[in-house]
Amino acid sequence: MKRSRFSEEQIIGILKEREAGAVTADVCRRHGISNATFYKWKAKYGGLEV
Question: What is the average pLDDT across 36-40?
Fold first, then answer.
């Protein structure tokens, strides 16, 4: 299985950016991920804290 470019801490930080009010498309573009990846991460890591 391919290793992720992002650690769990980084993923949670990206999700927190979105919760802070940023537009999903802008967050994805800034970090170089797709919308599908963002929503997959949100489902998996949504309620976690660093």
Answer: 96
Instruction: Say how far apart CA 50 and CA 8 lie, in whole Å.
Output: 8
Residue 50 included in any domain? no
Alpha-carbon span 3 to 26, nearest angstrom: 24
Residue 15: inside a domain: yes
Q: How far is CA 7 from the centre of its chain?
A: 10
Residue 35 sits at φ, ψ, to 5 deg, of -60, -40
Q: Which amino acid is at 39?
A: Y
The pTM for the full model equals 0.85
pLDDT at 1 over 90: no
Write out the residue range of the structural domain in which residue 35 sits.
8-45
